[in-house]
Write a structure and sequence with these properties.
Length: 121
């Protein structure tokens, strides 16, 4: 479900709080373009037929919005579309929420430490 940026951040904080027991939270970010694969393929075919370049000068400088998704199990799926002019403010709030919830991470068990304990025992 697509939310506005502030609502997404509050729901993200709640998802991290709910996941303290044993759930996993997946976060993904990617550039969002409004064209679908079919439209893009048709545009490239028409550009090749007309002899124009596939990547125009306008495409290089164009700023795209960022799509941010959160998936927490099967029941919680959230997403938001961050516009380029809002990205700095969003990333500051996003990183603060991530830093606050870093204590939920589990420490990775090291294989060498386990082998050393077995050898001494």
């Amino acid at each position: 479900m697509l939310f506005d940026n502030d609502k997404f951040l509050t729901k993200m904080a709640k998802a991290f709080e709910d996941s303290k027991s044993s759930k996993t939270v997946y976060l993904t970010m990617k550039r969002h373009s409004y064209t679908t694969k079919k439209i893009k393929a048709a545009e490239e075919a028409s550009e090749k037929a007309s002899g124009d370049s596939v990547m125009g000068a306008d495409d290089k400088d164009k700023e795209y919005p960022t799509l941010v998704r959160l998936n927490s199990g099967t029941k919680t799926k959230l997403s938001t579309l961050v516009q380029p002019h809002d990205l700095d403010r969003f990333m500051v709030q996003y990183t603060n929420i991530i830093k606050i919830n870093m204590d939920n991470l589990k420490k990775k068990e090291r294989k060498k430490a386990a082998k050393a304990k077995k050898a001494t025992a």
